[in-house]
Amino acid sequence: MKLADKLYGTLRQRVDSGEWPEGTRIPPETELAQIHGVSRPVVREALIRLRADGVIGARQGAGNFVIAGAVADAAGYRPIENVADLIEAFEFRFSVERDVAALAALRHTHAELDAIRHAAGAVNAQAGDDGFGDADFSFHFALARASRNAMYSATLNMLRNQIVFGMRLVGEFSQQRAASRVETVIEEHQAVVAAIAARDAMGAQAAMGRHLINSRRRILGFEIATDWLGAADGGPPTTGNKFNYEH
């Protein structure tokens, strides 16, 4: 288990158990890092997830506070158990994450663009499938934060297990060499980053669409037909056509 995941679980338990009731001021990042023997980036990632859950919130100049108390909802999506679940997850992600990329292109700050680039670069450093899945999720989550819409961040956070699970399946079932897979994903990520940096919303939406469709193909080993093709992707609704992004 990642250190950030472990710390997130520890902090979340303190809220859910009532140890940290609503209104409790969360210790500063440096203090949490010292208490739990981890780095500040690990603490920061755990706090980001708590914010996305709606468990904590920041007060300007005063730090982070518990805002939901023990009633905070730990809702998430059910685990992927079969191919049909996997296809449904990608269909949902296709609908959500293309708009996330488009909004990130329009709304990102310089700091958020730096975070996106950093997350994209971190994928390159991961060789193992477990680490690669986590790094891939961090990239997608950075885009959600740059969309400046907390609902997207919360949704991506709830999809974390499905996204990481999908990347692990690529490693298990893909016929493509691991190094080649990593290079391909990095290229797709960079296409998204380039469009976002250029504030090209349509380009970012299309690049994310290509990435998700290609990811699904890498996992399944084949393309599937769809009964919907968005107008932004080439025309009116169609029946039985495959997604085609080779423009």
UniProtKB/TrEMBL annotation:
<keyword id="KW-0805">Transcription regulation</keyword>
<keyword id="KW-0238">DNA-binding</keyword>
<dbReference type="InterPro" id="IPR036388">
    <property type="entry name" value="WH-like_DNA-bd_sf"/>
</dbReference>
<dbReference type="InterPro" id="IPR036390">
    <property type="entry name" value="WH_DNA-bd_sf"/>
</dbReference>
<dbReference type="GO" id="GO:0003700">
    <property type="term" value="F:DNA-binding transcription factor activity"/>
</dbReference>
<protein>
    <submittedName>
        <fullName>DNA-binding FadR family transcriptional regulator</fullName>
    </submittedName>
</protein>
<dbReference type="InterPro" id="IPR000524">
    <property type="entry name" value="Tscrpt_reg_HTH_GntR"/>
</dbReference>
<dbReference type="GO" id="GO:0003677">
    <property type="term" value="F:DNA binding"/>
</dbReference>
<dbReference type="InterPro" id="IPR008920">
    <property type="entry name" value="TF_FadR/GntR_C"/>
</dbReference>
<keyword id="KW-0804">Transcription</keyword>
<dbReference type="Pfam" id="PF00392">
    <property type="entry name" value="GntR"/>
</dbReference>
<dbReference type="Pfam" id="PF07729">
    <property type="entry name" value="FCD"/>
</dbReference>
<feature type="domain" description="HTH gntR-type">
    <location>
        <begin position="1"/>
        <end position="69"/>
    </location>
</feature>
<dbReference type="InterPro" id="IPR011711">
    <property type="entry name" value="GntR_C"/>
</dbReference>
